[in-house]
Amino acid sequence: MKNITSAFGFALLLASPWAAAQSQDSPSLYLQAGSGRHGAYTATLGVTLPWNWAHALGSGQLTGAWDLGLGTLSARPEGAQRRSVTALGAGINLRWRPAQGASRWFVEAGTGLVWHNRHYANGDKYFGTRYNFASHLGVGRNFGPQGRHALALRVQHQSNAGLKKPNPGDNFLLLRYAVAF
Question: At CB < 8 A and 24+ separation, what contacts does 167-173 make?
Answer without folding.
Answer: 167/127, 167/128, 167/129, 168/125, 168/126, 168/127, 169/125, 170/36, 170/37, 170/40, 170/120, 170/122, 170/125, 170/127, 171/36, 171/37, 172/34, 172/35, 172/36, 172/40, 172/42, 173/34, 173/35, 173/36
